[in-house]
Amino acid sequence: MVFFGAVRRKSGMDDLKRRWARLEPYLTIVGPDDDRPRPAVLLFHGCGGLRDHLPRYAEAAKAAGWRVFIIDSYGPRGWGRAFTLSAVCTGLAFRGYERAGDVLAAIQGISARRDVDATRLALAGWSHGGWSIMEMMSADPAPNTLGVADPGAADLSGVRAVWLAYPYIGPFAFNRMKPWRHCPKVLAVTCKRDHLTTVRNAEQVNAMIRNCGAEVESWVAAGTHAFDEPTNNGPMRHDPDLTEDSLRRFRAFLTDVVPSLP
């Protein structure tokens, strides 16, 4: 198993272009069957990797006329589920502020596509993916931070919306109360029975984002962490009805951002 860090010690830290070159072969693309520049939503999985619920969100976005890009952060690194559950989900490796470089690289790479309207982008993150988006939004993009050499090279001006599905905002999320540098429309999903945070903690974070000037809608879902993932693991329980509600809200959120899209 080779970590990106082991490669960087020999050849220097990735810049955004090189990081995107590593990520792009593992990209999953869903969307209308045309080549017109469409708004694009970038999906970032949780700490357990790609799971069956993300394609359902992709289809919901496609039905709203969006082009969808599911970003796999683990495939390029050669990481399997056993490793990520034991290392990433426990906070021992690859924390959100390190994965934020993947978010920046994806924004830059996908914005350059001819079938994408780079002025109408949305980011969507589940758990660890949401944490990574939040780290990217709050960080000072100084050189050699967020896991890449040139984080400031990514243009965030086209990011119009962010969907945060039960983002990790626990003890390792040191910057959870740090103001964002770019403040798009946000829908923040909090789970009433989330074992990783309290609703009060989540609402404090949401209030901080609002104070930056962002429009933030908060939905407290009556379920556990990862209620929309079709597995039951530890304290997490799948809720089919709540999942359908979440999918409906996701599509409505995108439609609200870019209405009346054919």
Question: In words, what does this structure look like?
Answer:
The chain is an alpha/beta fold. It is 35% helix and 19% strand. It contains eight helices and seven strands; from the N terminus they run ααββαβααβαββαβα. Strands 1-3-2-4-5-6-7 form a seven-stranded mixed beta sheet, with helices on both faces. Helix 2 packs across helix 5, helix 3 packs parallel to helix 8 and helix 5 crosses helix 6. 47% of the residues are buried. The N terminus is likely disordered.
Considering the chains and any ligands shown, give keywords for the structure.
7 strands, Peptidase_S9_cat, 262 residues, disordered N terminus, hydrolase activity, globular, Dienelactone hydrolase, alpha/beta, 7-stranded mixed β-sheet
Quick recap:
With 262 residues, this protein is an alpha/beta fold. It is built from 8 helices and 7 strands.
Largest β-sheet summary: 7 strands, mixed
What share of the residues does DSSP label as strand, in percent? 15-25%
C-alpha Rg (nearest Å): 17 Å
Number of beta strands: 7
The percent range for helix content is: 25-40%
The helix count comes to 8
Low-confidence parts: 1-11
Strand order of the largest sheet: 1-3-2-4-5-6-7
State the distance separating the first and last CA atoms: 45 Å
Order of helices and strands: HHEEHEHHEHEEHEH
Rounded mean pLDDT score? 94
Coarse morphology: globular
Structural class: alpha/beta
GO molecular function, one term: hydrolase activity
InterPro entries: AB_hydrolase_fold, FrsA_esterase, Peptidase_S9_cat
Protein name: Dienelactone hydrolase
Keywords: Hydrolase
